[in-house]
Amino acid sequence: MANDTQRFQAIIAHCKEYGFIFPSSEIYDGLSAVYDYGQWGSELKKNIKDYWWKSMTQLHENIVGIDAAIFMHPTVWKASGHVDNFSDPMIDNLDSKKRYRVDHLIEAKAEELESAGDAAASKTLLDKMDELLAANDYEALRELIIANNIKCTVSGTSKWTSVRQFNLMFSTQLGSVTDEASEIYLRPETAQGIFVNFLNVQKSGRMKIPFGIAQIGKAFRNEIVARQFIFRMREFEQMEMQFFVRPGTQKEWYEKWKETRMNWHLSLGIPKEDYQFKPHVKLAFYADAACDIEYKFPIGFKEVEGIHSRTDYDLKQHQEFSRKKMQYFDSETNQNYIPYVIETSIGLDRMFLLIVSHAYTEEDLSTAEKPDSRVVLRFPAKLAPLKLAIFPLTKKDGLPELARELMNECMPAFRCFYEEKDAIGKRYRRQDAIGTPFCVTIDHQTKEDGTVTIRHRDTMKQERVAMGDIKAMVQKEIS
Ligand code: GAP
């Protein structure tokens, strides 16, 4: 593949063609930055969710999960600071009337410089941007855009407005009366559902600090520049965990969660060099440490997960706004306090894109005799949408019946796929394209000695094994 942009476009096209991701409401020309997961995409997404959920809750005795509502009392967002602060610096082009996030506009220019071979200029530009963002110096940011001759992609001009802040929350009305009191928000993060339930969970679960609450759910942000496929969406899913700790111990827990989360990523077999930690240049006013875990997407190193040491800010704010105590009594120290919080927050859709980006491989299999190639999704077996495809060699001679026997045995244990149509080679290629790690062929020899051919997706190697061993073999690989 010639370059990363082409590779990214190929991944997007592949996701659509093979039932992973479709543009939302496509027959009406789609809805910007909103996507639907198809038959294999929803399986992959669910497997990622389950893998995260299991490793956070089942494998941690002191972490429990909840499932809070998307709608919350509007004061939650006042208390959390989202009504006043959840905004990004934006700039409008006067000719096209198109609005851009300032950092995205400058990053796009930096990428352009980098692709043109001027890595030093790219770095200087990004460093300057970071410095000005940290200082909230909007006038200087506008000047930086103009000085670097950054143009609107629609109008092609650089007639820019001043830089202003825009809130990213979607609002709607609760009930039938339209007044200010009934205005509620679609949650922009799942974390607040955890904070407001902190004492419910702690008391009903008799949880002792340190402990965590995990949650997976939808979040909504009115992203102005929503592009790059499912990387930046307006409706997306987060997998978040708030870990409540004794004040003064947050630094050590922050380091521990950085390590734990990175290990989770590496446990999927993705190379270490494709990841990096990026400390936040501009800390949110309530955080005392924060970083991103970045992955090398085809669009460059980008954030997939955030680890934030959020101090006692959120619980304190909810205590103040709700006038309900948010304190915890620590029987070891005999003290009442508001716990400090370490947050791990990963975007499920970004993790999906990461897995697909890692898995997508175009292989040239040409020989001297004939040209050949395949597209294969090398998913970690435990995340693959389908685990096993079962093919009778022909539609007759009792082979489908034998294949059905194997289907019936394996279906309750993991997701299987049955197919009789076309030559075996074609059927293998179709499974490669959706990332099925194992295919089994039932042939005439199966009738004689009970053996089948199992074909491994990545190596394309085939081996003859007893049909009765297949279920255990696959289970071992996906566990
Ligand atoms: N509670 C903390 C929080 O929401 P964040 O860095 O704004 O922090 C956490 O978001 C994660 O959610 C990000 O690392 C990213 O993976 C994902 N995310 C954020 N905005 C997104 C969007 N518009 N589309 C897809 N994923 C998004």
What can you see in these coordinates?
The protein has 479 residues and is α+β, with helices and mostly antiparallel strands. Helices cover 36% and strands 25% of the residues. The strands form 7 sheets. The protein has a 7-stranded mixed beta sheet. The protein has a 5-stranded mixed beta sheet with strand order 20-19-21-22-23, sandwiched between helices. It has a 3-stranded antiparallel beta sheet with strand order 5-4-6. Helix 2 (39-58) crosses helix 12, helix 3 (74-80) packs across helix 11 (313-322) and helix 6 (119-134) packs antiparallel against helix 7 (138-147). The chain is globular and about 75 Å long. The chain starts with a helix and ends with a helix. The relative contact order is 0.11. The chain binds glycyl-adenosine-5'-phosphate (GAP). Glycyl-adenosine-5'-phosphate binds next to strand 10, strand 13, strand 16 and helix 12. Glycyl-adenosine-5'-phosphate is lined by residues 189, 191, 221, 223, 232-233, 236, 238, 240, 303-306, 343, 345-347, 349-350.
Would you spell out the secondary-structure blueprint of this structure?
Blueprint (H helix, E strand, L loop, with lengths): L3 H14 L3 E3 L11 E3 L1 H20 L4 E4 L7 H7 L1 H4 L1 E6 L6 E3 H14 L3 H16 L3 H10 L16 E4 L3 E3 L9 E3 L5 H5 L2 H7 L6 E10 L14 E11 L4 H17 L8 E5 L9 E9 L2 E10 L3 H10 L5 E3 L4 E3 L2 E8 H12 E5 L8 E5 L10 E5 L6 H12 L5 E3 L5 H11 L3 E5 L1 H6 L1 E6 L5 E5 L3 H9 L1
Parallel strand pairs: 3-9, 19-20, 19-21
Antiparallel strand pairs: 1-2, 4-5, 4-6, 7-8, 9-10, 10-16, 11-12, 12-13, 13-16, 14-15, 17-18, 21-22, 22-23
Helix pairs in contact: 2-12, 3-11, 5-6, 6-7
Bound molecules: glycyl-adenosine-5'-phosphate.
